[in-house]
Structure formats: structure tokens, C-alpha cells
Amino acid sequence: MCTVDTPYVTGYMDIGRIFRLNTPANILDFPEKMSVIQGRTLKLNCKAQGFPQPKITWYIGNIVASHLKDSDIRITIYSLADGGQVNSFLAIRDVSEEDSSLYTCRAENSIDSGLSVVYDEESVFVHVRENMIEPNEDEPGMGKLLIPGERLVLQCNTSECPHCTVVWFKDDKLLEPMPGHLEIYEKNNSVLIEQSSYNDSGVYVCAIDRKQLDVALNATIVVQSKIKLEKFEQSSVVVQGSPLELYCLAKGAPMPHIKWFIGDEEVDDDNERVKLLDHEGLKKGKLMIEEADFQDRNYYTCEAYNQIDSVNATIFIRIKDKLAALWPFLGICAEVAILCSIIFVYERRKSMTQCDEPDTDLPTDNKHHRDQKMKGQDVRQRK
């Protein structure tokens, strides 16, 4: 006789025959996804194998389900064993939204005469839905995230009512196909948008009318998007006494909320100098100071946020003296005045110099001409 000893397999062997082979507990079958309609019965099955035969324990959240069974008559737990395999079932009748939780199956056994316990476990989140329509949300109750420019697919699964078709609505209006942009497929109850944009965000509803069922059923898919915020320039100059206006141009779904900061301080709604106004349907989308002053020189930050995203943009505002624009003009005027003064003085001195010049400075021809003229005058006087 020999002994086989491996990390997880022990046993005793005789020549040509195995008397016992110990194997750790291993879960073979367990659902990866699970949802159930409100008011119906939740059924979970966990199949495991191992030797000695594994013991299966169910958990609802962090609580052992068998402990809840005593106080909740809706819960049923039972197991069926077959050799080294065991099937365990957990059922909850008349489920409600409160039964949405993480359900865990743990299979455990001992392979070394009780010295240590080996276990394997699997978990699944069970979502309790209001009706038989199951939307393809990214996470139950979280809707779909829209990325502008990429494909967006919305679908309502009606597998529990294969003959049912749905009608689509967006923001309470009947959704119609838009060739080249939006298509509606009745075969799988889906909406396809090839290149989505921010305008495609909103509240979509797929509905089954009363003609197909005794009751009207619908499911909602909220299509959300991250925020797109136009960035400010690095800095800007405002003339003293002029209006200072800044716009926070943000897009997103749900509609972003806006906060303004001057330096590190948030702007209050009751600030008398700094006014926060609505702009293009965005509350507080505009910041305005009617008459900017030197004290308004600072960093201005717009922060846009919603349930899924938060972004910001900052600009530095410089305040320019209101007379600063006149200085170049006044400088030019001063230069012209000085130049005119120089020209006037120069011309005046030049004219005075010409009047004071002696006759000897005249050219010889001019002097001879003047002498001849004087002689002629003397002759006429003698006659």
C-alpha cells in the first residue's frame, strides 16, 4: 500500500485499485447574470463537486440565507446529492425591489481529515425588475453612456413575451426613424444611432401597448453623456469701467450644473457686483460685472458638473486703465505741438536774420543794378 499526497489531492491506493480520492470543492455551474420580474419567484441553482461531498452555504449580501429563512417564509433552500456532486437550490417567492442584492454560493469541504477547509464560491447580483421588459442599460438603473461620434444601441429585451413588439419614445415624443442617422428595428426591438451626438441624449422609453397584453408595460433608458466644456483663452484684458462678461458653454446629459469661482472663492448668488445669469438654457451659464475695476483682476473659473462628470475652465482677467487708450493719442498730439513750435521758431528766426543782413552781403550784380537805379533818380531830379 502507498500514500498519495498532493496539495489538494490525498488518498490511499492499493495495487490496481483506488479506495478513496479526496478532491477540493469546486463549483461547476452558477449563473453569471440574473434578473427577475417583481412579484415572481427567484430561483438560483448552484452545482458543485468534490470529495468528501461539499457542503453548500447561501449568502444574501453578507448574511447567511438560512438565518433569514427562519424570519422570511418566502425563502426556500434545499439540496440534492449525487455521488461526489451536489445541487443546491435557493428560491424566494413574490420578490420585490428589496430583494435586489448580491447572492453568493459557497461550496466547502475538508480533504485532510478536518485539519483545514477548502472552499470555492461564486456570486451574482440579482436585479428585480418591475416588468418583463429588460433594457440594455450599462448597469441596472444607470442608463447608457453616450460618447459623441460613436455608435449608440438601445434595446428592450422582451424574451418573456416573444410576440410582443415595442414602440419607442424620446422625451415623451414618439421616436421616428431618421435615414442616415437613426434606425428602428422591430425584430429585436432596438434603436441604432450610427454617429451619436449630444442631441441624442435624453430619456428613451420602450413600451408594449395594451393591444398585445392585458396591461401596458414600459421600460426607461436614460442616455447620458460626459460634459463637453469650451475652454477659455489663457487670459483677457478688460478696460476699466467696461462690462466684464464670461460664458460657461457646457453640454452634457443630464444638463450640467454650473459653479463660478473668483480666485479660490465660490461666487454666491446674492453677490451684488458679480451677477450669475442664465445663458442658452444653462442656469448660471453667464458671469457679468457691469463696471469692471482694478479689484476684479483675478483668475475666473467655471466648473460644470452632473451625476457622471465634472470639468472646469479658467481664465485670467487683466484690468486696463480706461485712459490708457488716450495716451498714444495724447502723445501724438504732444509730438505735433512740439514739432509745430520748432518749425515756428525756426521760421521766425530765419525771417529776422534776413531783415538784419547788410548790403555788402548782396551779390555784385544786384549792387550794380541798385547803383544804376540811384543815378537815374539823381538825373531826373536835376532836370
Automatic annotation (TrEMBL):
GO biological process, one term: homophilic cell adhesion via plasma membrane adhesion molecules
Gene3D superfamilies: Immunoglobulins
Region annotated Disordered, chain positions: 354-383
Entry keywords, A to Z: Disulfide bond, Immunoglobulin domain, Membrane, Transmembrane, Transmembrane helix
Gene Ontology CC terms, in alphabetical order: axon; plasma membrane
Pfam families hit by this protein: I-set, Ig_3
Domain of life: Eukaryota
SMART domains: IG, IGc2
Residue ranges constituting the Ig-like domain according to the UniProt record: 24-116, 135-216, 225-314
Membrane-crossing segments per the record: 325-346
GO MF annotation list: cell-cell adhesion mediator activity
Composition bias, Basic and acidic residues: 364-383
PROSITE patterns: IG_LIKE (PS50835)
Name of the protein described by the UniProt record: Peroxidasin-like protein
